[in-house]
Design goal:
Urease, subunit C, domain 1; 13 helices; eight-stranded mixed beta sheet; 19 strands; alpha/beta
Length: 427
C-alpha cells in the first residue's frame, strides 16, 4: 500500500470536507439498500458517483487507478440514511427561541421555504451524521399549511451547497377529527371536533383558489398561491400530517378530488387499519415514531413497534421518521427505530430499506440516492458492526456525494479529551 493510503487511514477521524476523485472501498459487507447484500464487496467511487461494485476476492485492482484505497476488513457498508420530516438545520437549541427557525406566523404559509433557512454548520447535524444519517428533509411546523420543505445533504459549506432537491413539497396539518381524551388526560373519552367540517372546508376553498390560480394565464401574483402551482402538475408533493382513521379517509378523498399526483401521509398511526384503501389509492406513509407509547388506551403496548411490519404486510409503501419531542437531537436515533422495527417483524434489509431507499422513493430522489448501485451518488458510510444496533453502530468512514467527511464530532472529541485527562490522573 502506498504511503498516502496509510496516512489516509490514520487521518480518517479528523478529516473535514475533503474531495477525493477516485475512492475504492474493499472487503466490506455491503447492504445495498434495496434488500440485497453482498459479502466481501468492493465499491468504487469516481467524481462523486458509484462506478464499481465487485467481489473483492475475485477481482484484481490496480493501485494506480485509485487515489485512495480503504480495506474495510469485513465492516458494513450502508447507503446514507435519510431523516424525513425533520427540523435538522432549522433549530439548534430547542429551549432557545432565537435558534428555532421552523414555525412562521400565519395559517397558510405555502410560500415559506426551509431551503434558505437551513444551517449547514449546525453542531447538532454533525452528531446525527456520525450515526449514518447523511440526508434530511428540513420541514416547517405550525399553521394549517406550514410551508415548503427541501431535501438537503447533512454536509456542505452553505445551504446552496447542501441542497439535494429544493422545494420538494408543501406540508399541510390536517385538522383533527376529535378532541380531548387520551390516556394521559382526564379519564374522559375523545369527542368529535365540532369545527372539523368547517376546518376541512377552509382547506378545500384554499386549494380551489390555488388550482384556479395555477390554471390562469396571467394571474395577479400571489406568493402563497404561486408556491402551490406545482402541487397540481406533480412536480411538488403534498405532505398531509395526520394520524387517525377519519383524517386518513378524508385525505384519500381530498387527494382524489384535486387529482393530486403525489400525496404523502405523515404520521399515519391508524394507517394499518386502512391497508386496502391506502394501497389502492397509492398513498405512501411516513410512519410515526416507533419509539412511542400507544395512542389509545385499548391499543397493545407494543403497537407502535409493530406498525412498520403491519404496513409492510398490507403492501403499503412506507418509511420511518422521527418527529416528536426533541426531534432535532433525536434524529440520530433513526437507525435504532429501524432496529426496533426489525425486532418486531421486519427483516434486517427491510428495516434498512425503510430509512434509505423507501424514504428516497417517497421523496422522489431514488434515482440518485437510497441504495448503493452503479450510477448513483456515492453517499454512504461504513460501520464497524450493525448500524441498527446502538451497541455496534460505530461509523468509521463517511462519504457524502463522493466527499470524505469526518466521522468524528464535538461530543466524541470531548470524550477523548476528558478520557485522556482523567486516565493520566488515575495512574
Amino acid at each position: 500500500m502506498k504511503l498516502t493510503h496509510i496516512l489516509f487511514l490514520i487521518a480518517i477521524p479528523f478529516l473535514g470536507n475533503s474531495q477525493y476523485n477516485r475512492i475504492l472501498l474493499t472487503n466490506g459487507f455491503l447492504h445495498v439498500g434495496n434488500g440485497e447484500t453482498k459479502e466481501s464487496a468492493a465499491v468504487g467511487c469516481v467524481n462523486g458517483k458509484i462506478t464499481l461494485i465487485k467481489h473483492s476476492l475475485t477481482t484484481t485492482f490496480k493501485k494506480e487507478d485509485w487515489d485512495t484505497i480503504i480495506d474495510l476488513n469485513g465492516k458494513h457498508i450502508y447507503p446514507g440514511f435519510v431523516a424525513p420530516n425533520s427540523t435538522l438545520g432549522l433549530t439548534e437549541i430547542d429551549a432557545v427561541r432565537a435558534t428555532r427557525d421552523y414555525d412562521d406566523v400565519g395559517e397558510y404559509n405555502s410560500h415559506v421555504r426551509t431551503q434558505i433557512a437551513f444551517n449547514a454548520e449546525s453542531k447538532v447535524i454533525e452528531t446525527v451524521r456520525t450515526n449514518g444519517v447523511l440526508l434530511a428533509q428540513p420541514t416547517p411546523r405550525g399553521g394549517t399549511i406550514s410551508g415548503t420543505s427541501s431535501v438537503m445533504f447533512l454536509s456542505g459549506w452553505n445551504w446552496e451547497d447542501a441542497t439535494v432537491l429544493k422545494d420538494d413539497g408543501i406540508h399541510l396539518n390536517w385538522p383533527s377529527s376529535t378532541e380531548g381524551g387520551g390516556w394521559w388526560a382526564e379519564p374522559a373519552p375523545k369527542k368529535r371536533n365540532e369545527n372539523y367540517e368547517v376546518q376541512k372546508r377552509e382547506i378545500s376553498e384554499f386549494f380551489k383558489l390555488a388550482l384556479a390560480y395555477s390554471e390562469a394565464k396571467r394571474p395577479k401574483e400571489d406568493l402563497r398561491l404561486e408556491a402551490m402551482k406545482e402541487c397540481f402538475n406533480g412536480k411538488k408533493r403534498v405532505f398531509f400530517h395526520a394520524d387517525d382513521m377519519q383524517q386518513l379517509l378524508d385525505i384519500i378523498d381530498f387527494s382524489k378530488e384535486f387529482d393530486l399526483k403525489f400525496p404523502v401521509i405523515v404520521g399515519g398511526y391508524d394507517a394499518h387499519l386502512l391497508g386496502r384503501r391506502l394501497k389502492d389509492a397509492g398513498i405512501p406513509v411516513m410512519l410515526t415514531r416507533t419509539h412511542s407509547l400507544p395512542e389509545y388506551e385499548e391499543d397493545a403496548i407494543d403497537l407502535p413497534y409493530k406498525l412498520p411490519y403491519l404496513l409492510k404486510e398490507q403492501g403499503i409503501k412506507f418509511c420511518l421518521q422521527n418527529a416528536g419531542d426533541m426531534e432535532t437531537m433525536n434524529a440520530r436515533n433513526l437507525p435504532f427505530l429501524a432496529g426496533t422495527a426489525k425486532a418486531y417483524g421486519l427483516t434486517e434489509e427491510e428495516a434498512i430499506r425503510s430509512i434509505s431507499l423507501s424514504t428516497c422513493e417517497i421523496l422522489g430522489i431514488d434515482k440518485n440516492f437510497g441504495s448503493i448501485e452503479i450510477g448513483k451518488s456515492a453517499t454512504l458510510f461504513v460501520s464497524d458492526g450493525s448500524a441498527l444496533d446502538m451497541r455496534t453502530n460505530q461509523v468509521s468512514v463517511i462519504l457524502v456525494d463522493g466527499k470524505l467527511v469526518s466521522s468524528s464530532n464535538f461530543q466524541t472529541e470531548l470524550y477523548r479529551k476528558y478520557k485522556n485527562k482523567y486516565a493520566k490522573k488515575s495512574k
